[in-house]
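G., before I forget:
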Amino acid sequence: MPWLAVAVLSMLTLPAAALAADPPNEESEKAVLSIPFEKYTLDNGLEVILSVDRKLPVVAVNVWYHVGAFHEQPGRTGFAHLFEHMMFQGSKNVEDDVHISLLQQIGATDVNGTTNFDRTNYFQTVPAHHLETALWLESDRMGFLLDALTPEKLDNQREVVKNERRQRTDAAPYGLASEKAWQALFPLPHPYYGSVIGSMEDLDAATMEDVFQFFEKWYAPSNATLAIVGDIDVEETKKLVERYFGSLPSRPKPESPRVEDVALNEEVVIRMEEPVATLPLVLMYWHSPRIFTEGDATADIVASALGTGKASRLYQRLIYEKKLAQSVSAYQYSLGAQSAFGIEVVARPGKSTDEIVAEVDAVLAELRENGVTDEEIRRARNRFETRRLLGLQRVGGFGGKADMLQSYNHFLGDPGKLAWDLQRYELVTTEETREFARTILAPDRRVVLHAIPPASRAGGAE
Amino acid sequence: MRRAHALLIAASLLAACATPQKTREVEVKEDRGVEEQWRRNRPQPGEPVPLRVPKFSRTELPNGLTVIVSERHDLPIVAVRVALRTGSAADPEGKAGLARLTYQLLLEGAGKLDAAALDQAFADLGTSASADATHDGGFVAVDVMTERLDAAMELLADIVLHPRFDPASFQHRKEQTLSTLAYQVGNPSFLGMEAMAATLYGESHPYGRTVSGTPETVSSLTLEDARAFWKRAAVPSQAAVVFAGDITMDRAVELATRYFGQWKGQAVAQPEPPTPAVEPRRRIVVVPKPGLQQTLILVGRPALRAGDPDEYPLELANAVFGGLFGSRLNMNLREAKGYTYGARSSVDARRGVGPLIAYSQVRADVTGPALVEVFAELQGLRERPITEEELEGAREGRIRSMPGWFETVGALASAGSRLFWLDLPLDHYDQVLRGLETATPAQVRQVVEAYLDPELMQVVLVGDPEIIRAQVEPLGLGELVFRQPPAIASIP
């Protein structure tokens, strides 16, 4: 929460992809690219995932609550994230304002909480002999948060979150532009509309009653998963987990709302004045396949061919050949209800965003014609594979082993899906990428936003 | 009241439970939950685990090239850094940004490969290379699977020994750098750091400008500048190949010898950045950004060199003041006042005297009150001296967190590069440990006096000039001086 809370439009949320090896070494590398684990469920419904890693004398304690901005009520955008902040404000047996200080004083690293559209997570990596302290803190707020809640705390964190919104959105380069484009892609009443951070009005409207109800409904042990990864003794750890979490009152697992997919039937073009940045921006969004469903891995490959590295198609055309852009990026933002495929291009000083759109369209037209080459697919896979291997170095933190296990468990019901996940990328073909570009990246089913700074700020153009 | 409310809802939800058996069990447990007195106390830690600090070994090849290795074999990956001791502090006056541009130019083409071919070659190995400058050095970096290390070394050697530096790629890189600067001058953090560097060191000091330079200085750079810079920087006696991960020293020496053994060049001595004057604050520097909803506050001073005996006491004092989430500064500005999303301070020990800077982005309409609180916390270190509990918490936290900071081979390799740039000993992290363990309360009090004196703190504000004038001028902290953001250079 604290420092890096909202993972809006960030690829950190879920490691975009990864892959198995080149043919010669398939066997050995696949053995490496797996995470041993044990999963079980307490009587009160809390899921537990344990995984041993003795590389360093540290342990990641990581809790996912299966609730995110997707589960907010109308008129309460930003509430799941505001609630996350409240989880750091003390509970029945943990004094106000000491949660993070205490962890930092015992040598914890990667202490944070994050909220995204689909889930909320809380994590810390502690020296191995302090595992029990982390379990004490996590269990106390899971069981007894409301005992210590006060209106003053809510008011204070409301202000902190509004500052966070200013820092990330209102006073950040392209912050408002991203929000506007996102809202056009997921219009109300779609629960993704609020971009996780929510609106100032809705944050102001949040009440103590909202906090009570949200906790009671969504923060039930049966709606949470605890992962412990690192230098642990499995049997000892099971006893500790039972002691701290086993007696927390059970509540039924809440049902997630069902939301119909949204679709655009025409191109939505938005032109706005950019209030902070100095250079023009073009932002394109399409709806794309849900995380881990058919087409999601194809989207990752297409994004890589379009925007990863100096040899990528957008980089070559817009930066080297046409000299129109300062930067390009393309990404599949994989989500639980419906994903988004994005292209972002920051213009060079004085360059026209219309010209940039035309060039991006030329690149996309070629993609719809011929798809991504075998060579591009292979290179993207190679990079995904290394990236995933690098991710296995950390037991906790953003995208470390605990998050990987949690993510597979959250979306697929099984923490052990790493091999399956990697396998997906081996199956992507040129034809599928071509089909993806034709059907998903259709020119008449997208949002295109032009954010243009006033001439006075953008400097002399030539 | 609150408790009753919560239980009521819990009870009604329980009623909906599926099996009576389960409900009964749960009710019993809930009673226990209420009475679990043992939850009141924070658990005792277990037997402390032995600390593991990063270990490095070093050797030198006949041509003067240093090889540094930190081994870790749990995964088949290696992080490699070619680290050079010449950084942006060596930018000639008026040419700020030269080091960064030159290092980035390395990836625009080397040997037979142009920029795209180089990128593809790294992609074939499942990775990407990066290159950049810091104040005290520069690097080319790659993280790669062990079995592809040899091929990656071949590419790295091409980049370092045979960069193209041709007119077209120089022109391209320069235009891209100018575009990036045009982007950065829209960013409050960049504007603030640029103004702070100039304020603390003066614009002609090697640390008085940012690594990026400004649109004006970068506009003046030529291919000849880059070639001359590289000729001075790229000599084996001023370079190290740093390996961290799944590798041994024997293998590292073999690879370094094969790919860099023929590297030649005469070293030019690197002057140490001069010691800056630390003077009482007279002025407050304001970078106007009309209409900005937040004001960026920067408060700082030149502090110390890496290896200074004050380094560890100051690190502990700073941890209490502003180094952590739970520090006084953040707990006041964020948790008590709600002015900001966060406030921090950090000490950047460099080869020369690096800065200590506290920073926070605050709601524009509380710019004045927030600045007052930053100074109140500085003053507070004297009026409410650091307690034993605060000091021991900072000490234990800093020491015990050390293994956690080095979970990745990339972090180990970057630490190895820093040892080389700053000429720190191989057992540096053991020394860090000892320094943190042995810093006395008296030493911590002394560094508070010496480095956290409110009178010696310079101030830079980025935000709406009218709000700042109205709220800050009456505080009497100094005369407001407006510093316009750098103009964007036109790109041909």
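Chain B touches chain A through 110 residues (CB under 8 Å). The first strand of chain B starts at residue 57 and ends at 60.

More on Monday.
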